[in-house]
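Structure first, sequence second, as always.
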């Protein structure tokens, strides 16, 4: 059986935090990842919740969380890992993107 890896990988920590946020919303939602132009390095990661898939979305299920990525954003985030980290600076989702040539200190902006 050939199992294709998900286009974006969620760590267990990220999935647990997302499940808590979705539970607080009180309805079934998917985690949407997208990329938009802007930010200090050229592109910015966008995270949101979605009630349904849109045409062109690539979907995967990981650790009980449905992840959606639109086909245009997928070009920039394919192979990335999203983690949830709590440290002295605060708590946030962090993206490790093998496609990014550089990123800024805020961690939400990158260039390719």
């Amino acid at each position: 059986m050939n199992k294709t890896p998900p286009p974006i990988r969620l760590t267990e920590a990220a999935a647990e935090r997302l499940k808590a946020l979705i539970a607080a919303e009180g309805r079934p939602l998917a985690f949407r990842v997208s990329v938009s132009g802007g930010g200090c390095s050229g592109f910015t990661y966008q995270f949101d919740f979605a009630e349904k898939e849109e045409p062109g979305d690539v979907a995967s299920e990981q650790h009980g969380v449905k992840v959606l990525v639109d086909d245009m954003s997928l070009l920039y985030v394919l192979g990335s890992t999203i983690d949830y980290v709590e440290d002295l600076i605060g708590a946030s989702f962090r993206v490790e993107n093998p496609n990014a040539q550089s990123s800024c200190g805020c961690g939400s902006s990158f260039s390719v």
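Margin note: The chain has a mean pLDDT of 85.
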